[in-house]
Amino acid sequence: MRLIIMGPPGAGKGTQAKILTERYSIPQLSTGDILRSAIMDKTPMGLQAKEIMARGELVPDEVVCGIVSERLDGDDARDGFILDGFPRTIAQAQALDEMLEEKGISLDAVVVLQVDGEELIERIRTRAAESGGARADDNEEVLRKRLQVYGELTRPLIAYYEKQGNVKNVDGMASIEEVSAQIAGLLEK
Ligand code: ADP
Questions:
Q1: pLDDT tens per residue, range 50-103
Q2: Which of 9, 67, 128, 135 qualifies as a FRET site for 121, CA 20 to 30 Å off?
Q3: Residue 133, pLDDT score
Q4: Ligand 1 atom nearest residue 35's Cα
Q5: Where are the domains of the chain?
Q6: What's the predicted TM-score (pTM) here?
């Protein structure tokens, strides 16, 4: 199963991606997680990404496309994967299409989690409180920036993938279990 999971920040992509990794025995390729671990390890890429992420802006396309291209070549991704947090721009989606074409593979589905804006702010507040501020970008001002970036640069991808005919819309406001059941139902159709 080759999947993309999309949705605004705080929509529950990471949570659902983890459930899908178990259900289909596929790895979760999260560009956000990979960048955060590069920051922790103080690699050159991490140093470059740190301030950008703390502002809620996007890391350059070349950087994240490089990460994904490398991860897609990993042994664990041979039979499938779930992309979480990538692509985030049309340029990234086009680059991904090229990577997939080169490998002779295609996506099975693009799962889109639909959530309303105010609810998202509430969820991120809770996440920030629970994690004791572990994520530098989990505060309200930065979240608003991330939502704005999502609306301007990432939401247009839904139309991009609708043209390819593989979008599955899911109500992200439901409980974790209900969302995951909805996704399973749509993927098994
Ligand atoms: P969320 O989905 O909650 O916003 P992520 O972990 O997916 O969190 O991303 C956190 C940050 O990492 C983003 O705001 C951005 O700065 C950076 N990032 C992650 N993936 C990408 C990407 N594909 N392109 C550019 N920047 C990215």
A1: 999 999 999 999 999 999 999 999 999 999 999 999 999 999 999 999 999 999
A2: 67
A3: 65
A4: 12
A5: 2-187
A6: 0.91
pLDDT of 187 above 80: yes
135 is catalytic: yes
Question: Residue 130: how many CB atoms within 10 A of its CB?
Answer: 10
- Options 2, 71, 146, 168, the catalytic residue: 146
* Catalytic hit among 123, 135, 145, 155: 135
CB 6 within 8 A of CB 87: no
- Fold of the CATH domain 2-187: Rossmann fold (3.40.50)
Give residue 87 CA to ligand 1 midpoint distance, Å.
10
User: Is position 50 annotated as part of the catalytic site?
Assistant: no
Q: Which two tokens stand for residue 65?
A: 């496309």
pLDDT tens track for 17-50: 999 999 999 999 999 999 999 999 999 999 999 9
Helix, strand and coil content of the chain, in percent to the nearest 5, comes to 60, 10, 30
Q: How many percent of the chain have pLDDT more than 70?
A: 98
User: Considering only CA atoms, which of 60, 53, 13 is closest in space to residue 36?
Assistant: 53
Helices (H), 74-164: 90-103, 117-130, 140-149, 156-164
Query: Angle at Cα 77 formed by Cα 53 and Cα 80, nearest 5°?
Result: 105
